[in-house]
């Protein structure tokens, strides 16, 4: 691929082989599609006190989206059938307004006109001492 090229470049050549010797298999994975330009995960949280159905949540640094899976990770390789299905989690602000651009909408709201059309927040998930999940949003 070429640095700075958006879209589906570099293209995915195919799924990683399942049970490839010498490699740990992924719990989750995502890539770039015609509708989702995901680049990297900026934080994970496995916070059982915070969720009743989700096993793992993660944040994507470019889009500000929070995603999750309900599938529990097991190391038993003979039962592994590939990465768990991920879901986009809908976020709402304190007034109940839907945040279409995830945590990036919170950055835009906080900065107002200073955002000047660029309001990526790089959400970093973490755990509080009691085990609940939190998010630190770092303005880039």
Tell me, what's the shape?
globular
SSE arrangement, N to C: EEEEHEE
Taking the sheet with the most strands, its summary is:
4 strands, antiparallel
Helix/strand-derived class?
mainly beta
Q: Residue share in helices?
A: under 10%
Share in β-strands: 15-25%
**Uncertain stretches of 5 or more adjacent residues:** none
Order of strands across the biggest sheet?
1-2-3-4
Mean pLDDT: 79
Q: Determine the number of helices (DSSP H or I, runs of at least 4 residues).
A: 1
Cα(first) to Cα(last) distance is: 24 Å
Q: Nearest-angstrom radius of gyration?
A: 17 Å
Number of E-type strands: 6
Short structural description:
6% of the residues lie in helices and 19% in strands. The protein has 140 residues and is mainly beta.
């Amino acid at each position: 691929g070429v640095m700075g090229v958006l879209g589906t470049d570099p293209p995915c050549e195919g799924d990683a082989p399942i049970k490839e010797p010498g490699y740990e298999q992924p719990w989750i994975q995502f890539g770039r599609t015609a509708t989702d330009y995901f680049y990297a995960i900026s934080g994970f949280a496995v916070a059982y006190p915070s969720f009743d159905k989700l096993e793992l949540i993660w944040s994507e640094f470019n889009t500000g989206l929070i995603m999750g899976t309900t599938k529990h990770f097991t190391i038993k390789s003979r039962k592994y059938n590939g990465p768990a299905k991920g879901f986009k989690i809908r976020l709402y602000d304190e007034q109940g307004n839907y945040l279409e651009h995830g945590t990036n909408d919170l950055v835009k709201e906080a900065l107002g006109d200073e955002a000047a059309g660029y309001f990526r927040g790089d959400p970093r998930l973490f755990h509080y001492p009691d085990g609940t999940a939190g998010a630190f949003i770092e303005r880039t």
